[in-house]
Amino acid sequence: MYKLFRLTTVLSSLETLLKGQPCFMQHYYDVTIISSDKEQLEKVGLVEGVKTYSVELTRQITPVKDLKALWKLYHFFREKKPDIVHTHTPKAGLIGMLAARLAKVPYRLHTVAGMPLMETTGLKRKILNFTEKLTCECAQHVYPNSKGLYEFIINNKFCSKHKLKVIGSGSSNGIDTAYFSLAHYSREQNEKLKNKINISSNAFVFCFVGRLVKDKGINELVQSFVEVNSRFLYARLLLVGPFERELDPLLPKTENEIQNNPNIITTGFQTDVRPYMAISDVFVFPSYREGFPNVVMQAGAMDLPCIVTDINGCNEIIKEGVNGLIIPPKNKEQLQAKMELLLENSILRNQLKQNARSMITSRYEQKMVWEALLEEYRSLERIQ
């Protein structure tokens, strides 16, 4: 049986963004998942039913740690002789592809699911451009998980076109639409949760799910909501996710507003976001950059009309006026206008809602994505 190694920088990518995929691939390959946080990684391995190997990787630029990780992975690949090494996330892609090339791994694959360099300038941007090109150079096949990322990679000359391919309709893992469904939640359950987090039954809830950081458009979202809330007193903003103050902090005034505005509710990180989507009326995702955002697909599967920015992935999942509305990134005025539009116009809101779930199930059902990736792996085998 072919050996397949899947590598991510941080464990959360395996736990959430690729959840279930290693288990599926284990039916066809001898799978090992590789990431940081040894103890938790082993727990994920037990859930997925696959082998694990821990390497300390960081999302920051840490040359000494990165060289140690490269050396460790190189020796591990030389010893275990995987047939396929498939990396995800920028740091794991760079270290994993370099180690795999040095170890002469037959098939070296890298998935691009968002690039932090899109919002970076100056010397740091030049460094990240170089590392991205190096990753693509070491990889034999590169899979941007959206058409927008495909074009971005081509336009920035990170990779030769013959290496690039979007798997299926995009997305790294698709959506389990049986799991993400309003059918799991009764009106009584929803009211109970609203009461628990102090949201009145007649409130209109705008929901965001993700990291509470600048690059996700949280500064603009909070400012827009404050304006909306001044006109519509029954509006609420539900923020589901953790702060990342070290990597990408919010403006002090934004964080102060979040902490002190009683109509802005925060939940912190949640392993299951479905209950919060189930009590919401509109999903808002004003991110500056994405690969192919899972949360927008999840929201659609939960029958939520979406307001998203005109960026990679978002503008492929959402069709303007069909299952949501699209605004320019970093545009507080447009965001406020669209939030007010969907709050006031119930006819438009219900129209978008009726299309939301079918637009996801027809294109991004999880098994469809997994089968498409499996076929890609098998096509590599046939090349031999």
Kindly list the characteristics that best describe this protein.
alpha/beta, 384 residues, 6-stranded parallel sheet, Rossmann fold, globular, 12 strands, 2 domains
Mind explaining what this structure looks like?
- The chain has 384 residues and is an alpha/beta fold.
- It folds into 2 domains: 3-174 and 366-383, 3-Layer(aba) Sandwich (Rossmann fold), CATH 3.40.50; 182-364, 3-Layer(aba) Sandwich (Rossmann fold), CATH 3.40.50.
- Helix content is 47%, strand content 15%.
- The strands form 2 sheets. The protein has a 6-stranded parallel beta sheet with strand order 3-2-1-4-5-6, with helices on both faces. Strands 9-8-7-10-11-12 form a 6-stranded parallel beta sheet, with helices on both faces.
- Helix 4 packs across helix 5 (90-102), helix 5 packs across helix 6 (122-138) and helix 9 packs across helix 14 (332-344).
